[in-house]
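Narrative summary of target 7.
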Amino acid sequence: MKKVTKILAVALVGAMMMSAAACGARSKSADATTVAMHNTNSLKGADIDSYYDDVEYDGEWGAIEETIAAEDYYEQDAVDNSQYSNSGTGTTYPANTMLIRRVNMDVETTSYDSVNRTISDKVNELGGYIESSNARGTGKNGDLRSISYVIRVPIDKLDALVNTVGTACTVLSSSENTEDVTLQYSDVKAHIQSLRVEQETLLNLLAQADSLEAIITLQGRLTEVRYEIESYESRAKVLENQSSYSTLSLNVREVLEVTEQVETKKLSFGEEIWEGLKESLTDIREDGKDFIIGFVSALPYLLIFAIIVVIIVLIVKGIIKSTKKKAAKKAAAAPAPKAPAAAPEAPAAKAETQESKTE
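Modeled conformation, tokenized:
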């Protein structure tokens, strides 16, 4: 039994070492090193002795031979990535290069509807699709419209779409970003290969296992390996899609007048005055138009408000008038106040009167 255990340990560790070597040969990134260490450390030799004491294995090196064959197969599959190379973009790139191209454009136009139809037709013609769009504005009462696109087209058709947009609109700004993901893709494929090698080895060991503990342990590890394979395959598909279909982020704005694309030059004093005057007149015209539109649009509300104000004023005047009338009536109905009685004369005054009479 100990001999069988040692053979199993040697076989599994050998498979893990070859898997790690395959990863190291295809990638220099820290990711590859991390995954290889994870795969190797998940089933150490010391753990194998405790897990597989009761496992019997026939054909000692059969699994290793199958592992080598599987590794060679996946190696050929990883190297053959020429279908993802780019061509027709106007720039020459090395063969088997996977590039992700992203272009951002801000444009404006006075023919908003026509431009949108042109963009949609061109995308369909190039075999692309509109991933998302977000429109704003109504196009009425001075509410100018705008729309944002995220467009995906084959990488060799991106330049044609950019040229079409540039011809149909006035380009305000444009930027492009190109990312080389060749190493990332090779890295992901290498991880998938090494995990498949480990999966085959685990399946062979599972077929020979005869104890419940060994079966449970192997099945648990198989589940982890399958999950990792699915995760890396999903990442590989994302890279394939992004490198085969480029992305154009496009913002289209409707304007009344197209921005003049002129070279910046130093203006003379008189030219600066003239340009400032023209800009002021344009602003006055636009502000006046906006005021008239806003005033006319608000007339129904102003009329209702005026009626309410008139009613309130009439009511207040009526109340004041009624109050004054009541006060006048009350004043008329009240009796007139009596005059006060004359006060008796003082004795000194009487004496003076008599003296004056005697004289």
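Residues 99-180+246-254 form a domain with the Alpha-Beta Plaits fold (CATH 3.30.70).
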